[in-house]
């Protein structure tokens, strides 16, 4: 009977305050929808940014062998079905014919492996014997394909830490990636060519895959530096941004919950007469409290569940909708052109839903308990 | 006949903002026998409703003892009070106080469902009662679709639903017009007699109060003049009416008696007897 009465007091056509129940449920629906979508967008943006950095700049992990050769680790990782590439890096200064100079790091890898790496050729090609610069560097420094440049490599010396070495080279290609920090700070070169110029340069392994798996395979045979280690300050800033986002959402939620609390109290006040009459007719206080707590739970569950369903439907269709909006605005609004991967997270959804359900239950429990503190007649007199 | 309600040394006062107390009832004693209808009358504000609410366990007294069916209610815990209310008591208020989210039939069923009866059994009993109060055609109507008199008839049916031993009625016809009030009064009294239930009635209406088996007057917080009336049976009422009829026949001739309303009243009594 309790659940039947709870449903009757929630959405039944005979419930005089059905509109209030529906209003509360709709409010919760939009609140849940908004929170789910905002969280998904923020997580999507962060993942997109980190995803690009991991793919183009820092890989999932960089493995180095402090004892020199990395071949054993290279083979070991490949045997475990991981994407592994050998690479070396040295700092360098580039000077063009117009005397403009750019400081960057030369990242070298085996050009035979370039098909597996994500660097897109904008002009020219990845050829041995030349330097590949980014499109940004080419524009900023007014450099052109096949232009001769002077390259100063700062290599490890035998008696002093750094030895500068000048050599002339040609620009053989222009690459591009979506990560501007990488574009501005890296030149690309074939590894064999770099090792010829700077034979003492350390060779490391770039690995794509699960960090735990990589660490487990490498064990104590080498050092694993994860993408988080390599982008520590950026990662900390992003985490701070995420925390602030949650603070903002929490403030939003508090505003929603204050309104929800007041609506639930109002709804309960509208039912004062019924509460008193049920008590006068001999219904146990605990049963009356259960009825009105369940009523609040029914209303908030309907709102939260529909809000979650709506946000799920929105998020799975968001790429199409964003693509459509990008099309009709002809790419004028930058946010529409960001390739976001939006996902509906059940965990996030539960994190939103559970506090809402708990709060409504607590408010109704406390409210009906407070009303029932008085004798049946006192409730009716106060009415 | 045993007492269904026994009130001893009952006092009730309400605190005032000036830290003084407003004493409504003071050392009041009252006993009501089982199966009768008793009315309590008095001036406005004399504490009639307060007395009824205390007797019905809806308000706590400041001091004193209230026994219903020999059991002290002030010592009962919440569970015992709930059991008492849903098994032995029925309530009728001035403003009917029906559950507005339920239809007429569901309102009558509610005390039975609270008591733990099955839906089927509750519905059967509710249908019987709604028929008795003449509102079968309104059983599916929402409370706000009923008139004041109809609401009060539903409230009467609801108060009888759990076959209570005692019904507390607080000005049940107070908000109705004279015609409706008279109809409801007769219906209530006839139903409590039929169901052999005790009725304790608080009213301003002396005509209604006089229809009850016993009448008590509440003055200055006490039952001061318990006007002892002989408890009448239907047979007594009939004999009185016959004597009265004979008197008219002697004075004005039989023809006038035939045509008088009295004849109609006698017929009504015969019908009531057949019902019993």
Gist of the model:
The complex is a heterodimer of chains A (383) and B (276). With 383 residues, chain A is of the alpha+beta class.
Give a structural overview:
The complex is a heterodimer of chains A (383) and B (276). Chain A is of the alpha+beta class and 383 residues long. Chain A contains 14 helices and ten strands. Chain A folds into two domains: 2-51 and 235-382, no CATH class; 88-197, no CATH class. In chain A, a hairpin with a 5-residue loop joins strand 6 and strand 7. The longest helix of chain A is centred in the last third of the chain and has 44 residues, at 285-328. By secondary structure, chain B is an alpha/beta fold. Chain B folds into two domains: 3-231, P-loop containing nucleotide triphosphate hydrolases (Rossmann fold); 235-276. In chain B, the strands form two sheets. Chain B has a six-stranded mixed sheet with strand order 6-7-8-3-9-10, sandwiched between helices. In chain B, strands 2-1-4-5 form a four-stranded antiparallel sheet, with helices on one face. In chain B, a hairpin with a 2-residue loop joins strand 9 and strand 10. The longest helix of chain B is centred in the C-terminal third of the chain and has 19 residues, at 234-252. Mean pLDDT of chain B is 77; it is low at 255-276. The chains are: A alpha+beta (383), B alpha/beta (276). Chains A and B meet through helix 10 and helix 14 of A and helix 2 and helix 3 of B.
SS element count, helices of chain A: 14
Report the sheet with the most strands of chain A, covering strand number, pairing sense and barrel closure: 10 strands, mixed
**SSE succession of chain B:** EEEHEEHEHHHEHEHEEHHH
Q: Taking Cα atoms only, what radius of gyration of chain B do you get, to the nearest Å?
A: 20 Å
Could you give the count of β-strands of chain B? 10
At CATH level 3, the topology of the largest domain in chain B is Rossmann fold
Averaged pLDDT of chain A: 82
Oligomer state equals heterodimer
Cα end-to-end separation of chain A: 26 Å
Q: Estimate what percentage of residues of chain A fall within beta strands.
A: 15-25%
């Amino acid at each position: 009977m309790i659940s039947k009465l709870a449903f009757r007091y929630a959405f039944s056509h005979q419930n005089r305050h059905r509109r209030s129940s529906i209003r509360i449920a709709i409010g919760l629906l939009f609140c849940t929808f908004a929170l789910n979508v905002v969280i998904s967008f923020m997580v999507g943006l962060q993942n997109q940014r980190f995803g690009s950095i991991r793919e183009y700049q820092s890989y999932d992990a960089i493995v180095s062998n402090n004892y020199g050769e990395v071949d054993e680790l290279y083979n070991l990782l490949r045997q475990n079905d991981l994407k592994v590439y050998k690479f070396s890096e040295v700092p360098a200064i580039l000077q063009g014919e117009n005397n403009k100079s750019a400081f960057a790091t030369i990242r070298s890898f085996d050009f035979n492996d370039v098909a597996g790496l994500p660097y897109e050729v904008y002009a020219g090609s990845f050829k041995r014997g030349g330097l590949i610069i980014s499109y940004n560097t080419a524009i900023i420094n007014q450099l052109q394909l096949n232009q001769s440049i002077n390259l100063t490599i700062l290599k490890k010396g035998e008696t002093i830490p750094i030895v500068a070495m000048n050599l002339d080279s040609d620009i053989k290609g222009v690459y591009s990636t979506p990560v501007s920090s990488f574009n501005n700070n890296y030149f690309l070169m074939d590894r064999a060519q770099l090792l010829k110029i700077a034979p003492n340069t350390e060779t490391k392994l770039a690995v794509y895959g699960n960090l735990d798996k990589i660490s487990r395979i490498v064990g104590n045979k080498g050092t694993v530096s994860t993408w988080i280690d390599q982008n520590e300050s950026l990662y900390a800033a992003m985490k701070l941004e995420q925390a602030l986002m949650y603070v903002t959402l929490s403030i939003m939620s508090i505003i929603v919950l204050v309104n929800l609390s007041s609506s639930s109290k109002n709804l309960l006040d509208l039912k004062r007469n019924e509460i008193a009459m049920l008590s006068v007719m001999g219904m146990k206080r605990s049963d009356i409290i259960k009825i009105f707590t369940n009523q609040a739970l029914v209303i908030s569950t309907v709102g939260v569940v529909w809000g979650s369903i709506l946000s799920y439907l929105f998020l799975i269709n968001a790429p199409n909708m964003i693509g459509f909006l990008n099309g009709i605005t002809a790419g004028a609004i930058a946010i529409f052109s960001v390739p976001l991967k939006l996902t509906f997270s059940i965990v996030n959804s539960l994190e939103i839903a559970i506090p809402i359900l708990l709060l409504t239950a607590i408010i109704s429990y406390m409210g009906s308990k407070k009303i029932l503190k008085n004798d049946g007649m006192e409730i009716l007199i106060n009415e | 006949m045993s007492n269904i309600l026994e009130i001893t040394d009952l006092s009730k006062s309400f605190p005032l903002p000036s830290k003084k107390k407003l004493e409504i009832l003071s050392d009041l004693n009252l006993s009501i026998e089982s199966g009768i209808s008793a009315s309590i009358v008095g001036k406005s504000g004399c504490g009639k409703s307060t007395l009824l609410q205390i007797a019905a366990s809806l308000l706590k007294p400041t001091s004193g003892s209230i026994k219903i069916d020999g059991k002290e209610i002030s010592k009962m815990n919440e569970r015992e009070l709930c059991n008492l209310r849903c098994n032995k008591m029925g309530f009728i208020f001035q403003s009917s106080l029906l559950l507005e989210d339920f239809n007429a039939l569901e309102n009558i069923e509610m005390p039975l469902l609270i008591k733990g009866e099955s839906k089927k059994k509750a519905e059967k009993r509710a249908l019987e009662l709604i028929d008795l109060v003449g509102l079968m055609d309104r059983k599916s109507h929402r409370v706000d679709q009923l008139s004041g008199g109809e609401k009060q008839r539903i409230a009467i049916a609801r108060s009888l639903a759990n076959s209570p031993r005692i019904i507390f009625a607080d000005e049940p016809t107070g908000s109705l017009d004279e015609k409706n009030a008279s109809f409801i009064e007769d219906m209530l009294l006839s139903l409590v007699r039929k169901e052999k239930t005790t009725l304790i009635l608080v009213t301003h209406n002396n005509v209604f109060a006089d229809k009850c088996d016993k009448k008590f007057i509440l003055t200055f917080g006490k039952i001061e003049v318990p006007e002892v009336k002989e408890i009448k049976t239907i047979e007594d009422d009939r004999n009185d009416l016959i004597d009265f009829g004979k008197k008219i026949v002697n004075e004005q001739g039989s023809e006038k008696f035939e045509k008088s309303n009295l004849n109609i009243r006698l017929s009504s009594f015969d019908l009531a007897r057949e019902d019993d």
